[in-house]
Write a structure and sequence with these properties.
Two copies of one chain form a homodimer. The first copy, chain A, is an alpha+beta fold. The first copy, chain A, contains four helices and seven strands, in the order αβααββββββα. In chain A, strands 1-7-6-5-4-3-2 form a seven-stranded antiparallel β-sheet, covered by helices on one side. In chain A, a hairpin with a 3-residue loop joins β4 and β5. In chain A, α2 packs across α3 and α3 packs across α4. The first copy, chain A, is globular and about 45 Å long. At the A-B interface, β4, β5, β6 and β7 of A face β4, β5, β6 and β7 of B.
């Protein structure tokens, strides 16, 4: 029996509650930034589509009480599923949504995200606050924060393009 | 012009992000505590009905992806509406739900709540964590925490009764 075999099986990680906030300034106006979250085709282009993954489903009903379902796979990976519910929408100012993420049948997280959009000179300050429950161990909130920075960088490219 | 008239109009309160946690021990077993959240008739009895308010609507679909709608009024007050979405259910262990509350057309809050149920001797420790976005000013998270303590006290009476 090797040392590795004698290690106890890792415990199923419990619920970790965490909050993070990411801010980003864009040179475009708030109306343009908001539109990138409002318009289904734009959302699909900049946020959902990715050369590394295959999109299996994307439905997006951007209104309070409406939902998003996104399903996609990375090569060799499990199906990733996102179920979101739009909770509050103030045009050009604020979007609040809850969402659940799964990898296969494994729950990764449940989150409440607030996007605040504020005019700043001729551009926009976007503040993304996520309050979440994470199930992938101690780094999972940190990883989600990095993922969010990546998404907001993709948005910068969409707005510039 | 009086001093009162010279005061600037109160600003519409912005989004306040806050997290609170309330713990409570019940002498009943986890299965009994969980059932009080699972069974529609029980939920209506201990949590929704109140001698001070009139229930206008209560629909409760306790499954992942299911929703709750509760509408009620206190005498002379606006209609209060709660829209909840069940995000995660582990029988006898955990319930995660998001919910939105309105008074009339005014959004009061959007929250993500985790109820953790843990066996403790012959009884149960219940840990209620709420991560929320509140719109009623600086005390709104504190008030919600007090409301949650009140609800968990109502549960104690239901379980004992």
């Amino acid at each position: 029996m090797t040392d590795a075999m004698m290690k106890p099986a890792p415990e199923a990680p419990g619920a970790i509650h965490s909050t993070f906030r990411v801010s980003r300034t864009y040179p475009q106006a708030p109306e343009r930034v908001f539109k990138a979250f409002e318009d289904t085709d734009l959302v699909r282009r900049w946020r959902v589509e990715d050369e590394n993954c295959k999109v299996l489903e994307f439905t997006y009903d951007f209104r309070v009480g409406g939902t998003e379902v996104s399903r996609f796979v990375f090569p060799g990976g499990p199906e990733i599923r996102l179920d979101a519910q739009f909770q509050d929408i103030v045009p050009n100012e604020r979007i609040i949504f809850s969402y659940r993420m799964l990898a296969g049948s494994m729950l990764l997280s449940v989150s409440l995200s607030t996007i605040e959009i504020k005019r700043s000179g001729r551009g926009t300050d976007l503040i993304f606050t996520e309050q979440g429950v994470y199930f992938e161990g101690p780094d999972s909130a940190k990883n989600r924060e990095e993922g969010t920075r990546f998404i907001l960088e993709k948005l910068a490219k969409e707005l510039a393009g």
